[in-house]
Design a protein that fits this description.
With 191 residues, this protein is α/β, with parallel strands linked by helices. A seven-stranded mixed sheet has the order 3-2-1-4-5-7-6. The structure holds S-adenosylmethionine.
């Protein structure tokens, strides 16, 4: 599985180098990163690293994790290694260190078990931001495996106990993306 995922994403990043261009951070990340109680961040499935780059510019130390060595090699050229660690790993089998981070970001990637495993990695009062695509009849791309799409209201169900929901939103994705898709995002604070 890991080898197939790596191959698939390396191919995408190689065929569409634009995916590795520096892009604007998600609006939720830009609005809520300041609520993190400290400066240790984790960017899971970082891809081109738009959040890693943004957060390191805001003074965070970032652990940036992805399966694609192509994406990470490109990202490594753009960051200060004293501030950003690029970690090549299959998130299917990745459990971040406990009580380690002030901010965790997971965008445009859905692994329900990973969201749950990552909760223990946040410090008390730490902020987690999760944002990704929804199953929606208005989506321009209908071929996506439904397992990788959120159902309406689903994100909130991961954070029902022990969390403060700071923001929870449904919206159409940014113009910079290839297909127009419905998205859901949440920012939560660990109690
Ligand atoms: C759509 S991109 C999202 C990139 C970034 N989070 C963003 O919002 O710009 C999805 C990323 O997930 C990574 N990915 C896919 N499967 C993975 C896995 N099993 N383990 C780690 N990363 C994976 C891909 O390499 C790709 O960089």
């Amino acid at each position: 599985m890991a080898a197939r995922d790596r191959e698939k994403w390396n191919r995408k990043f190689s065929e569409m180098p634009d995916l590795l261009a520096s892009r604007a951070p998600s609006a939720l990340v830009a609005r809520f990163y300041r609520e993190a109680p400290g400066k240790e961040a984790l960017d899971l499935a970082c891809g081109g690293g738009r959040h890693t780059l943004f957060l390191s510019q805001q003074g965070f130390h970032v652990d940036a994790v992805d399966i694609s060595d192509v994406a990470l090699a490109k990202l490594a050229l753009k960051v200060d290694p004293a501030k950003v660690r690029c970690i090549e790993s299959d998130l299917d089998h990745f459990t971040p260190a406990s009580d380690r981070y002030d901010l965790i970001v997971i965008t445009n990637f859905l692994d329900r078990a990973l969201i749950q495993r990552s909760a223990a990695a946040l410090k008390r009062h730490g902020i987690m931001i999760v944002e990704t695509y929804m199953d929606d009849p208005g989506n321009e791309k209908q071929s996506t495996n439904p397992d990788y799409l959120l159902q309406k209201g689903e994100l909130e169900t991961f954070f029902s106990k022990g969390w403060e929901i700071v923001a929870s939103e449904t919206f159409w994705n940014e113009d910079q993306e290839q297909y127009r898709m419905r998205k859901q995002g949440i920012a939560v604070r660990k109690q």
